[in-house]
Structures are given as structure tokens and as C-alpha cells.
Amino acid sequence: MTHPPPLGMLAEVTHRCPLACPYCSNPVQLDRRSDELDTAAWLGVFEQAAALGVLQLHLSGGEPAARPDIVELTRGAAAAGLYTNLITSGIGLSAARLEALAGAGLDHVQLSWQDTDSANADEIAGFAGAYARKQETARAVIALGLPLTINVVVHRLNIGRVAEMAAAAHRAGARRIEIAHAQYYGWGLVNRAALLPTLDQVEAAHAAVARVRQELQPAILVDYVAPDHFSRWPKPCMNGWGRQSLNVTPRGKVLPCHAAETIPGLVFWNVREHPLREIWEASPAFTAFRGEAWMKEPCRSCPRKEIDFGGCRCQAFAWTGDAADADPACQHSPHHAALRAAVAAPRTDGLRYRRFSGAPAGPGG
Ligand code: FES
Question: Rounded to two decimals, what is the model's pTM?
């Protein structure tokens, strides 16, 4: 049986990255450079994605500019008819390289900021001088006339400055800022006790976002992803499993979401062995939680299942040991009280930075 095509594809072209952010969405076990798909393999995936119906390609990582062939990859994706969005740390992107990317057909740049306090930004990124380099990249993007989105992950260590971040993004010339609370899978889960904000901080951030939206929109669009740990309802994670998007890892595994590998027992097919269409329509991982047949109570009879699609499968597994359970962010989950207890627990100091296993611990690893 065929399934409606995905709208977007996230291509994690490498896990290599100069930054070491302790909430990185990459898995704790990172793919090595020697395992990465080569240029021809990626270009073939992009052509298959376009044929499948994908409209938007998000070139991501790690840091996609760590790939020497990123201009070639962008040119191939654009030639395939995909709208190309580069999701970047801004490190390793000279003005000349950005110009080459624009010439290759790049449509949009999404630049991460860690903070507007430069010392804290560098500390969170685990990279001295990151803040200044990111400002240079933003200027170069704007000078080329490319649309710019600033992406900020917020947590206990920067949440007090969401208004300043939105104002700074506006001054930098961005058309959009995405302020998203950290997600607690992978590296984020490792560092949850240090990163999770307090309820007071979250309420202040909600108010600050409402205020800056009044002040700055529509000159800059302020998107805000609220933290589900403080909610009574789960987020519609991925807009439903296997429903709108797919994620290709550096080594070619195709995942329904970036954290899907945290669910044991799922079998992920690889673009080295299967056509992308077959993976999307029929692979075991994509069909595991697609639709509603997998749902148990309380999701099965819940009228909100068409709004939140049962929430997040990865979060359900992390808290209950069964990915088919209700997301504990839902107030009807028997595990909701445990999630609330974690929110009420004392916070800790000290971060475990993203790094390849075997590398030294600490910032910049
Ligand atoms: Fe995997 Fe939510 S992150 S379903």
C-alpha cells in the first residue's frame, strides 16, 4: 500500500561538528567520517527524494560545512528540484564559501545561536570564539540576500535572554527566529538535570515571547516551541511518525525521527540497500508507529489523537520502556507524575559535552 509522500527530508550529511553542544540532537554514538555516504550516494538520495515527492531538503549534521563537497551536494539537490535549507553552526563558512553555496542554488540558511551573551554562548557551544564567528556568518548571509532564520535552543543556562535573542536576530536581518526548548533525548537526556529550566523560568520565557511577538512581528517571525515537560498535553512529535518527514543519517540509515535509534528493536533500512520510496512506504521502522493501529489506551480512544498523534514515541520509550505507551507528557499517562517529579527535582551543575566516544571530556571535545 502506498503512503502519501513526505514533505521534508533531513539529510545529516555528517556528524562531524566543531561545536560540542550538550543538547545536540545527534545520537550519543556518532557516525565516523569513514562511515559517511560519499558524494555520489548523497546525490542519488536527493534525486530519489525529489522523485518521491519531497519538497524541502534540510542539509544538516553535525556541521554540513564540514563536508568538503557541500557546494556540490547543494548544487545536486537544487538541480533535483528540492528547496534547500542549510542548517549550520556558522563555523567553517567563509563569505566565499557562502557565495559558492548561493551560486549552487542554496535557498535558505538556518543559523544556530547559543546565546546573545558571548561568553555564555561560547561556553555552551564548547568553542572559544563561536559567538563572533556566527555574527560574521549572519552578516555574510544577509549580504548575499539569502533568507536567514536564527535557531536558538533554550534551556536553564540561557532562557532568561529569549527577548534579547529575538531583538538581536531582528537587528541581524533575520526574517525568522525559532526559539525551541531543548528536547531531552540523546545528549539532552544525558544533561537533563543541568539543562531543564525551572517552572518560574519557563513562565517568564512564555511572557517574554508574547511580548517580543507584539513588538517585533511581522518584521521578524518569532516561532516558539514550548517545553512539553511543563505541559498537560504531548507535542505532535514529527507531526506524526512516518507521516511528513524522514531523516537520513551520515551512514545512510533512514529514520522516522532523529532520536528513533533510541528505541531498541526497530529495524532501520539503509539507502545503500533499499530505494528511498520502499523505505518510506514499507520499511519496518516507518510502519511501526504509523497511523493509529499501534496505539494502546489511553491514546486509542482519545479525541486528541488526531491533534498530537499520540505524542512522542522516543519519549514514551525513555520513560516507560514501551514505545507504544502514551507519551508521559500527557496528563492521562500513568507516568506523567514521574515526569513532573523530574521537573521538580533539584538541578545540577556541570555538562557532558557532545563528543565522539574516546575523545577527552569537557568543552570542545
Ligand atoms: Fe522520536 Fe519524538 S523524537 S518520535
Answer: 0.94
